[in-house]
Specification:
There is one protein chain. This protein folds into five domains: 143-248, no CATH class; 255-344, Immunoglobulin-like (Sandwich); 350-439, Sandwich (Immunoglobulin-like); 447-558 and 777-781, no CATH class; 559-756, Jelly Rolls (Sandwich). It has seven helices and 48 strands. The chain has 787 residues and is mainly β. The protein is elongated and about 115 Å long.
Length: 787
């Protein structure tokens, strides 16, 4: 940051003394190397007589009076002049780089080759004049900016300018008379401001600058251990690049708006001939812009433009192609860069507004029509045909135009997967689409009447059920070769609550492998008894049916999110399909877990972010298997965080914590710290998975903590109560509070759930019994074929 008070008293006094010093010593202007009006200055120390190509080289300093004159060809003189110009540019923009150092050496070598080094002056002496000691000192200071050009830039025209610092000024000494140019390199301060508007800039720190049309005084002065410079005057143009630049008044960057085509626009005509945009600068500055496109369909630029609308011609656009156009605008101080996209319309007709939507399930058998909209963006007349399978209706038409069309249906049956085919042509280009929908079954039906060939009875053992439960998500794991008769993707797996005419039960398949008959599935059982066994039935072997899975309906509406942690890449999917998460690089996916897959967390950076949930959470649970056994003396490690209303962060941690109850192993903390719930004396082994459940106890005004399905003695802090998670706005797994820092967890996590109501203790213990050992929770009967 540039200092707000750069005009220190010492700097002001130094510049005033510089004026006095320059006025009192006019005779010192002998350092000027201009001898004839027809000569061109080649500072430091080179002169070219353009008409006679007589080149004079003078070495300033201790060899002040020694010079060398050589007659060269005009080509050689021009080469020396050009190389000097390049060197001056490099010393301005990259004064400390290895490339500039090489260019200085090459320039001295060129002078020596052309016999321009004055007699009695060595190449090393002349090179030292181009490499002042201050450059070497700054170059070895370790500042990372020295190997690259400065990114901050200030420019002022028709201005007053002054500066001082440690470094060098070229020319070394100036009296108040007009000069074509002046430059400086150093570490200091520079001020420039327009004479009419007082708008300007202040540069501080390492910097390089130059002026064009300078009128003023200046001096470079060496003292033991340092080279100093100072100057003050007027310039037609002053430009500085520096570590820090502040503009006065603060500059407003340009704004790009009113783009055409609009950003993200679809179906733009491929006949589009120009891109249009508006540029505006709140300060009224003139602006320069450049526009490029990807893929390349055209580009353009403009310099010193006022507020207005501008366009760039484009051509050669292709259909169904997404184009990006990059607009960069600068006012000489700040640069605005924006990317915009548009997609061209296809040549072929486009189908939209499909009804029923593709893939819709449980459609009523009373459906009497299907509907679609067709659009040709070139305005051509079209022909279409529609067919259904199984056949429930068809249609065709010719010479139609953009619009919505329907096809009448008849004989739509229950529990049937239908496909319908739409073909549209404009005479040259075709569109062919296939859509599907599946009709619902009756409220009660016999699957054997609808194409299923086999069933198995699944019995829930009442001895594993702690209390009567409704809408319970039952985990079933099977390794049964009979399931090889099912569809390869398991779409025909169907659960019913009885034999013959019965009701369908919703289920979600977590994993199915047809070649081995391995199945992991969650089934929403309407009622499970704790006193008698509960039977349900699995049907399979129907090659023609659609997908019977109803993933979202498997979970009671009170479930906010269910994450199986079983995918191997991409988003961390929520079975309810509302709150997908993203994992950091410190998370390993696709690890074998308790139930199908699990996630591994590295204990350093790994966590999963689910963002804002915006629901009230009264019950949350997860399975954990730490990498190392956690004891009451283990250093605290985080596992999960929830943020209530964006104000109070609730974190779940394991192990000991000095600011909480002594020797706690599972603890729940929030801010302020006295609002806490803790369990003491537990050890979480690394040999198996453990279920951790937090369940809101409204009577005690706190979360009760369950470990492997059993309630734990809870110790509360000095507060009389706790706050439930209301309006969860930040949720994550892998550390104990939001953000990329915190206490991180090292180990495996499986089956994370958030619930909007409090479960009973019987529910929690039954859930544990079911998931820790699914094969002991149910028994699987023999296969029963279609009668």
């Amino acid at each position: 940051m540039v200092k707000t008070e750069l005009l220190k008293k010492e700097a002001v006094l130094g510049i005033i003394l510089l004026f006095i010093f320059g006025c009192c010593m006019p005779g010192l202007n002998g350092t000027s190397i201009m001898k004839k009006s027809q000569q061109v200055s080649l500072t430091p120390g080179v002169e070219t007589q353009v008409e006679k190509t007589l080149v004079t080289c003078v070495a300033f300093g201790t060899t002040r009076n020694m010079k060398q004159q050589v007659t060269l060809t005009q080509q050689d003189a021009s080469m020396i002049l050009e190389q000097l110009r390049e060197l001056k540019t490099a010393m301005t923009q990259h004064p400390y780089s290895e490339k500039t150092k090489t260019m200085r050496q090459a320039f001295v070598d060129l002078l020596a080759e052309k016999n321009l080094i004055p007699q009695g002056t060595s190449n090393e002496t002349y090179l030292s004049l181009l490499s002042p000691r201050w450059i070497e000192r700054i170059q070895h200071s370790g500042n990372p900016l020295l190997s690259q050009p400065f990114t901050n830039h200030g420019t002022s025209t028709f201005c007053s300018i002054g500066g001082e610092g440690s470094g060098v000024l070229i020319p070394l000494f100036m009296l108040p008379r007009p000069r074509i140019a002046m430059l400086w390199l150093g570490n200091g301060e520079t001020l420039a401001a327009n004479l009419l508007t007082s708008r300007g800039y202040v540069a501080e720190g390492l910097q390089a600058g130059f002026t064009v049309g300078f009128m003023g005084i200046g001096i470079s002065y060496a003292i033991p251990g340092a080279s100093l410079y100072g100057f003050i005057g007027y310039a037609i143009l002053a430009s500085t690049t520096a570590e820090n630049i502040a503009h006065y008044p603060p500059n407003s960057p340009p704004v790009v708006s009113a783009v055409s085509p609009a950003d993200g626009e679809k179906y733009s005509p491929k006949s589009l001939s120009e891109l249009q945009f508006r540029i505006q600068d709140a300060d009224g500055d003139l602006m320069s812009y450049t526009v490029t496109t990807t893929p390349d369909i055209g580009s353009g630029s403009g310099n010193l433009k006022p507020f207005g609308v501008y366009s760039v011609p484009v051509s050669g656009l292709q259909s169904s192609t997404t184009y990006t156009w990059h607009v960069e605008v600068t006012d000489g101080k700040d640069t605005t860069a924006d990317d915009f996209t548009f997609t061209t319309a296809p040549d072929e007709p486009v189908l939209s507004d499909i009804s029923p939507q593709d893939g819709t399930q449980d459609v009523s058998s009373g459906l009497n029509q299907i509907r679609f909209t067709v659009t040709d963006y070139q305005g051509d007349a079209m022909d279409y045909t529609v067919q259904t399978s199984p056949d429930i209706g068809s249609a065709q038409a010719s010479g139609i135009h953009n619009g919505t069309y329907t096809v009448a249906l008849h004989g739509v049956a229950n529990g049937t997967l239908y496909q319908w085919y739409v073909n549209v042509t404009d005479g040259t280009h075709w569109t062919r689409k296939i859509f599907t929908f599946e009709t619902a079954f009756p409220s009660v039906f016999d699957p054997f009447d609808y194409g299923w060939q086999y069933r198995k009875q699944i019995t829930v053992l009442h001895t594993q059920v702690a209390e009567d439960l409704t809408e319970f998500p039952l985990l079933i794991e099977m390794n049964d070769a009979d399931l090889q008769k099912a569809q390869a993707n398991g779409n025909d797996l169907l659960f019913m609550n009885g034999v013959g005419n019965a009701g369908k039960i919703f289920h979600e398949i977590e994993a199915f492998d047809a070649p081995t008959g391995h199945l992991t599935v969650w089934v929403n059982v309407p009622f499970i008894s704790s006193s008698t066994d509960t039977a349900l039935y699995l049907y399979y072997g129907n090659a023609r049916c659609g997908n019977q899975q109803r993933q979202k309906a498997t979970w009671d509406p009170q479930y906010i999110g269910v994450w199986h942690f079983n995918q191997e890449s991409g988003l961390v999917l929520d079975s309810i399909r509302q709150h997908n998460g993203t994992a950091t690089s410190g998370v390993t996916e696709g690890i074998s877990g308790l139930i199908d897959g699990a996630f591994g967390f590295d204990g350093a950076t790994g966590y999963v972010d689910f963002g804002d949930i915006n629901r009230n959470v009264y019950d949350f649970s997860f399975w954990v298997k730490p990498t190392n056994t956690i004891t009451p003396s283990t250093p605290n490690t985080g596992i999960l965080h929830l943020c209530r209303n964006g104000i109070i962060s609730i974190g779940v941690s394991f192990g000991a914590a000095s600011d909480l109850v002594q020797d706690e192993t599972i603890l729940l903390c929030s801010s302020p710290p006295e609002l806490r719930t803790a369990v003491t004396g537990l050890t979480i082994s690394n040999t198996m998975f453990h279920l951790i459940t937090f369940n809101w106890n409204s009577a005690a005004n706190r979360y009760d903590i369950y470990y492997d399905g059993a309630p734990q003695p809870v110790t509360c802090g000095t507060s009389s109560g706790f706050l439930p998670v209301v309006n969860l706005v930040d949720f994550g797994v892998g550390h104990d509070y939001s953000g990329s820092s915190g206490l991180f967890y090292n180990g495996l996590v499986d089956e994370v759930r958030l619930v909007g109501s409090s479960h009973t203790s019987g529910w929690i213990s039954t859930e544990y019994n079911n998931q820790i050992n699914p094969s002991s929770f149910v028994s699987i009967g023999p296969e029963v074929p279609h009668p």
